[in-house]
Amino acid sequence: MPVRIVKPTSPGRRNLSIDTFSDITKTEPHKALTVMLRRFAGRNAQGRITVRHRVGGAQRYYRLVDFKQDKFDIAGTVESIEYDPYRTSRIALVRYADNEYRYIIAPHGLKVGDMVVSSLSAVPPKLGNRMPLKYIPVGQGVFNIELKPKTKGVLARSAGNTAKLMAVEGGFAQLELPSGEARRVPEDAAATIGQVSNPDRRLITWGKAGRMYHKGRRPSVRGKAMNPVDHPHGGGEGLSPIGLKHPKTPWGKPALGVKTRKRGKWSEALIIKRRK
Fold first, then answer.
1. Quick check: 276 pLDDT over 80?
2. Which long-range contacts (CB under 8 A, 24 or more apart) does 231-237 make?
């Protein structure tokens, strides 16, 4: 996915870059696999904003992506590579031998006409194939990884992400995740071979607030730019520092780098090394 830098015809377009969508082979989604999600723009049942910096954004259809890929031992043919407005990666429309269509997260390098298969036993470790971790060669990059067998993939699903399989021993597979965290996952948990598509997305410069508004994000104002009545960081003359022992949220709780993971969580024993 090449990224194109536009001409600076206005201050908002200076240093702005856009996706060329050259890897997209079909513009309209498969209608049977789309639904319209209701959007609340950060408001609760009473209409009050409970989550800041949210807005309705552009209207879009949600694609029903198959994260389980539980159609085992039936080969599917990639019909198209499509854009998904609800995720950073591309999705692939797969038609199986029984003429059922499903969307999957497209691995980087997957092309129209390629065959993919999901299995609970060993299958060739080819791009896009899915199988339990115990059958995948050590050192292979994987994505869309299950935390528990026969559930659905939850790890390494964002654009360009891939986890490295380090070892398989004692009923667990050791993975190095994109965050740098090393953790153990049951060896019967499934994963897909390859790297998530659209790795160049990190190179996009959004450029102006309007593009973020279409994505559903409203502008965020610094606390130190507010008045003391509005934020603990507010007040002072000019570019004043925070002036507190530690940064706080508008409601007085610790913020900016505070660890939020619950102590003694059940998965603590499965983490070998913390993320970077």
1. no
2. none
User: Which whole number is the average pLDDT over 158-169?
Assistant: 95
- DSSP class per residue in 225-257: GS-TTT-TT--SSSS----SSS-B-TTS-B-SS
Is residue 172 in a domain? yes
Mean predicted confidence (pLDDT) in 141-169: 95
In a domain, 189, yes or no: yes
Q: Where are the alpha helices (DSSP H) in the chain?
A: 209-214
CATH of the domain at 83: 2.40.50.140
Q: Mean pLDDT, to the nearest integer, of 59-72?
A: 94
Per-residue pLDDT, 1? 61
Supply the pTM of this predicted model: 0.88
Residue 211 belongs to a domain: no
Is 29:67 a contact under the CB 8 Å cutoff?
no
Beta-ladder partners of 174: 167, 184
Range of the domain at 72: 3-202
What's the CA dihedral at 177, 178, 180, 183 to 10 degrees?
-10
pLDDT for residue 82 is more than 80: yes
Residues 174 and 240 in one domain: no
Q: How many domains does the chain have?
A: 2
CB neighbour class for 169 (10 Å; exposed up to 12, middle 13-18, buried from 19): exposed
Burial class (CB in 10 A: 0-12, 13-18, 19+), 13: middle
The SS3 of residue 155 is strand
